[in-house]
Amino acid sequence: MQLKELKNNKPEKYTGISLVWHFLEGSKAYFLISIVAALAVNGLDMITPQIIRTTVDNVLGDEPLKLPGFLMEMVQAAGGVEYLKRHLWIMGLLIILVAICSALFRYWNTMFNGKGAERLVKTMRNRLFSHIQRLPFSWHMENQTGDIIQRCTSDVDMIKNFVSEQLTSVFRIVMMIILSLSFMFPMNAKLTMVAVFFAPVIFGYSAYFHSKIRDRFTECDENEGVLSTIAQENLTGIRVVRAFGREKYEKDRFEKQNNIYTNEWMKLCRILSLFWGTGDLISGLQIMLIVVLGSVFCVQGEMTAGEFIAFVSYNTMLIWPVRQLGRTISEMSKAGVSVERIRYIMNSEAEQDKPDAVTPDLKGDIEFEHVSFGYGDAKVLSDVSFKIPRGTTFGILGSTGSGKSTLMYLLNRLYDLPKENGRITIGGVDIADMKGEWVRRNIGMVLQEPFLFSRTIGENIGITQESVSLTQIREAAAIACVDGAVTEFAKGYDTLVGERGVTLSGGQKQRTAIARMLMQKTPIMVFDDSLSAVDAQTDAQIRQALKSKLKEATVILIAHRVTTLMQADCIMVMDKGRIAEMGSHTELMEKNGIYRRIYDMQMTLEEEVTADES
Ligand SMILES: Nc1ncnc2c1ncn2[C@@H]1O[C@H](COP(=O)(O)OP(=O)(O)OP(=O)(O)O)[C@@H](O)[C@H]1O
Ligand SMILES: [Mg+2]
Fold first, then answer.
1. In angstroms, what is the span from residue 402 Cα to ligand 1's centroid?
2. How confident is the model at residue 1 (pLDDT cuts 50, 70, 90)?
3. How high does pLDDT run on average in the chain?
4. 452: DSSP letter
5. Average pLDDT for 109-137
6. 481 in the Ramachandran plot: left (φ > 0), alpha (ψ -120 to 50) or beta?
């Protein structure tokens, strides 16, 4: 599946060209030197046929010498044509000298081009990554990770290759065409016309294929995106695949997509082969015609033998760039697709605070006022209003999908609440008027699905801090009741988490994430179903430790287990995006509503389990 199409009403920040220009910062000078060197190579390449022509016509033959003024003077000073006839090696030496100079410029051309290309790709990667980091959470939720990664790798490479291999050679191509024609025309105008006649044919031909090739490339790229997404999803979800014995299904799914992808490339190859094959035929015909007509003109005395040889050389020099232009056009379509795909990312609006965003003290009361919210069209929260006094513990209970996590995403500004959909205030200040980063830094949140980085446990816990000591890490880990488990690992807090290290149990993961959040020492703490994977005893132990250590903090506890919440100062029961009930445990029990029903049900279950066990 593809990234969503741009649906911007606002003017876009970058056009394709301005984006490439933006990326070229830091590499422009390199490309410029490389272009100048390429032009010098061109100029030198033009000289060799002239030396050959002079050798054939004037040194070996007896045609009168025709050279530009200063060259003529040089030849006269050296002893005239007669001298050259006696020292033929001079002509050979001249050719070698030109070749050496040409090689030198070619070296600079390649070297500076390479440097420019690497700089360019580095800038592209850095800028893309830094922009993606600043994109809203909702953007990341809407777009596929595999596809984003593909855009940051293949598409970036595609643009680099186009700029360094094609775009810089456009100058060389144009110069080559102009130079060859300016040498050909004075030699034989009629034959030049014949040579030029074919150029528009080849151009027209390229233009025709251009549109076809572009479409095919888009198909290929999109299918590659789907393929990487399948592979990426499959690898991250490998446990589920194994657990359900879905290997064959996944293999078939991958193979099917791989087939589609390969077929798209086959189609593309067919078009490209046709394009290049026919192109060869056309240029072959052109060369043949020039050789035949040139020979006729030679025989008729309209051209000398030397001019004929030089003309054929220049004609080859003309044909190459004309064909190359065709190639550049087809590459341009490929690169154009990649630029579009990267432009989508770069034009997606980064998170931005209001210009007068504030950073107030967040120790005050939290208040949700008539909050309604939905992801897209489906409504998730409807007119939710409640208040959490500072320093209290607030419990949220509710069936799955009732909008509990969504409330916390809104509080944390992971999603912005549209203006007309109510207000969330902390200490009386609307969080929409605060700096997003400030809000997040002051609201510690243990997400429902904690994610740990592939680093050591110690690093994972201390990740929110600039510098941190092991004692501080252990202190947080002790409150989260994970210190004991970690010290049992051979490498303790230096144990690597994830693929290259140990696999933590669900409960250990949750508790490590709790410890990580505790390190932030925020005035507001949210535990979104964070004690679901620990046993009731550990659950109670963690809550006890939290209570005694964090007296000042406002704590929001989301849970499905009533016992986790029953000691909270206030408990809110959510049902289908609305508040069903609210009050303390005793009040809610007296109310005899949903809370009571859930409580009774869970207690009965627990008693049954205890009875079964004994
Ligand atoms: N990023 C999203 N895009 C679209 N819909 C979403 C998104 N996140 C959640 N939803 C939907 O919003 C509704 C509320 O989800 P939410 O995660 O807030 O529920 P919850 O009360 O936390 O449930 P649970 O107890 O299972 O964690 C669900 O119907 C869910 O499918
Ligand atoms: Mg949830």
1. 7
2. very low
3. 88
4. -
5. 94
6. left
* pLDDT tens-digit series, residues 519-543: 988 999 999 988 888 888 888 888 8
Best probe residue, ligand 1, of 137, 141, 371, 380 (max atoms within 8 Å of C-beta) = 380
Q: Which atom of ligand 1 is nearest to the CA of 409?
A: 18
Ligand closest to the CA atom of residue 401: 1
* Cα separation, 595 vs 574, whole angstroms: 10
Please give the model's pTM, rounded to 2 decimal places: 0.77
CB atoms within 10 A of CB 500: 8
Give Dmax (Cα) for the chain.
123
3-state secondary structure 258-315: HHHHHHHHHHHHHHHHHHHHHHHHHHHHHHHHHHHHHHHHHHCCCCCHHHHHHHHHHH
Ligand 1 pocket residue status of 444, Cβ below 6 Å: no
Question: Contact, 166 vs 325, CB < 8 A?
Answer: no
What pLDDT is recorded for position 603?
A: 83
Ligand 1 atom 19: the closest Cα is on which residue?
A: 401
Looking up residue 534, the CATH number of its domain turns out to be 3.40.50.300
Q: Identify the CATH number of the domain in which residue 293 sits.
A: 1.20.1560.10
The pair of three-digit structure tokens given for residue 534, joined into one six-digit string: 């620990």
Instruction: Extract the runs of DSSP E, i.e. beta strands, from 438-521.
Output: 443-446
**Cα–Cα distance, 459 to 466 (Å, whole number):** 11
Whole-angstrom Cα distance, residue 531 to residue 542? 9
Same domain, 248 and 322: yes
The string of DSSP letters for 310-335 reads HHHHHHHHHHHHHHHHHHHHHHHHHH
Q: Which helix (H) or strand (E) holds 340?
A: helix 305-347
Which pLDDT does position 500 carry in this prediction? 61
559: Cβ below 6 Å to ligand 1? no
Phi, psi (deg, nearest 5) at residue 35: -65, -45
Name the residue of 142, 145, 371, 375 whose CB sits within 8 Å of the most ligand 1 atoms, as the mutation to test its pocket.
375
Q: Whose CA is nearest to atom 29 of ligand 1?
A: 401
Task: Say which residues have a Cβ less than 8 Å from residue 154's Cβ, sequence separation at least 6.
Answer: 221, 224, 338
Instruction: State the pLDDT at residue 209.
Output: 78
Domain assignment of residue 573, given as a range: 366-450+523-613
Same-domain pairing of 328 and 370: no
Q: Would the CB of 141 count as within 6 Å of ligand 1?
A: yes
Give just the sign of the alpha carbon dihedral 225, 226, 231, 235: positive
Q: Is there a single domain that holds both residue 302 and residue 399?
A: no
Q: Looking at the DSSP assignment, which residues form a beta bridge with residue 360?
A: none
